[in-house]
Design brief:
The protein contains 6 helices and 18 strands. It is an alpha+beta fold and 269 residues long. It folds into 2 domains: 100 residues, no CATH class; 94 residues, Beta Barrel (Lipocalin), CATH 2.40.128. A hairpin with a 2-residue loop joins strand 14 and strand 15. It is elongated, with a radius of gyration of 23 Å.
Length: 269
């Protein structure tokens, strides 16, 4: 059985909100957990980015955290700080937690080693596996950890530098001072905007309170994330949010699109 704690997520309504209390879902069967994860990954995109919900799963001494974005489930093990997040289906998440996925990988590795042994030619020196070079059991994991850390850092640095390279010149910003008009515009413009849905694409979440979250989709890691709060106004007649994000202000070209740092983002919901 796997114990589950729901963070900022209500499975009954399928909603996510920052003011939701954490909920202990107790011990779940495999079928119950698969169903829960299936509902979890269908959270409203706006609610998901704004509330950042999680499902914490525990079994014995192991603890896992599941997050979601655009229908994908990301599984991480907090105590393994440099481990790469896995992007999985609900069934795959269960397999990783109950150990069946690791057992299958071990069987595949054993079969590969057996085939290697069968084809070994007598008198021929065979190079040892990478994991046995140097200090057995230490060199490869350390390389993996350093590689993962470098990948995460590179993603964040590239995200910032990419925006900085495209930072526009200073512009005349005219704040919208009328409170009712300001609130109406914020409500209309709030949403999640994306350049695409593939690894490497960017997304921006815009909240009614002016919060902005810039993220980049990564192939096998949780999305890179930058946060800011902007003021609503006009630039050259266009509605815009001006904050301190590298790349300049967000310019709204309509209710369903905006431009930022030279890229066009389309509203997904």
């Amino acid at each position: 059985m796997i114990r589950a704690t729901l963070v900022r997520f209500d499975p009954d309504s399928g909603r996510s909100a920052s003011d939701l209390m954490d909920r202990n879902a107790g011990e779940l069967t495999t079928g119950e957990l698969v169903a829960l994860l299936g509902k979890f990954r269908t959270i409203d995109p706006i609610e998901n980015v704004e509330a950042e919900p999680e499902i914490v799963l525990e079994t014995g001494r192991q603890k896992f955290v599941v997050t979601t974005l655009l229908g994908r489930l990301h599984l991480v093990e907090p105590r393994k700080a440099f481990a790469t997040a896995l992007v999985l289906s609900p069934e795959d998440v269960v397999a990783e937690i109950d150990g069946s996925a690791a057992a299958a990988r071990n069987r595949t590795l054993a079969d590969a080693r057996a085939r290697h042994h069968d084809f070994k030619v007598v008198g021929t020196t065979v190079a040892p596996p990478l994991s046995t070079v140097g200090k057995p059991g230490r060199a490869l994991p350390r390389r993996i950890a350093l590689g993962a850390a470098a990948s995460v850092l590179a993603a964040y640095v590239l995200l910032s530098q990419s925006a900085l390279r495209r930072q526009p010149p200073r512009v005349d910003f005219e704040p919208i001072s009328d409170a009712r008009q300001n609130a109406a515009y914020r409500k209309d413009l709030a949403g999640v905007y994306m350049t695409g849905s593939q690894p490497g694409d960017y997304g921006i979440s815009v909240g009614e309170d002016g919060t902005m979250k810039l993220f980049q989709l990564n192939a096998q890691t949780t999305p890179s994330l930058m946060r800011d709060t902007g003021r609503l106004g006009r630039i050259e007649g266009q509605l815009a949010l001006l904050g301190s994000l590298p790349g300049g202000p967000l310019r709204f070209t309509g209710k369903s699109s905006l431009t930022f740092s030279g890229r066009t983002f389309h509203r997904i919901q």
